[in-house]
Amino acid sequence: MNLIPDVALAENTSQRLPCVVVLDGSTSMQGNAIQALNDGLKLLESDLKADDVARQRVRILVLRIGAPHDVEVVTDWVDAIEFEAPEIDANGTTPLGAGVRRALDEIEAEKARYRDHGIPYNRPWLFVLTDGEPTDPGWEGAADECRAAEENGRVSVFCVGVGEANIAKLARFSPRQPLALKGLAFREFFLWLSRSARAGSQSAPSENIQMAAPSDWAVIPGGS
What we know:
By secondary structure, the protein is an alpha/beta fold.
């Protein structure tokens, strides 16, 4: 059972690396894609828990976008040691703007809790994975807010397109170029995320965390 966030922070005052993952749970993800995604989440869980530092310092929040809730917290803020991989369902459309806006709100609330408890933290990470394009009205405003949050140093945003994702629209959410997943390489992606978090959790709050090259799971859209 997940601990209440403030209780967990009171019991463990270690430096934190907050990480939010926004996952596309729309109908188009049905079949092999959603199974590969769920397998990848299980690998993320096991790999983070295997690291003595990361399991205490990495904090995870998982949001699912799709029907019936548009945006659903499938894993509330939890330290990696308590993280249990959620099972993502595929149903509905892709309200990506609403999902990203919720993620930004959650990040700011989490940072406020850190400040309340005197806990140092690294710049939060926000990962967005989708195989489509935003379907909610006004998503452009959310994209602009997300890009501004990155440019102002409040968050680091990483967008990943799956399959036939609209990379041009995904690119509006961050000044960092979106990457495209190689096939259904979700396990490789989540292993890269875990290894990056394991390294990042040992960085001082003021350090700029260097991510490993994502060569085994990503391609640059439009590249040769």
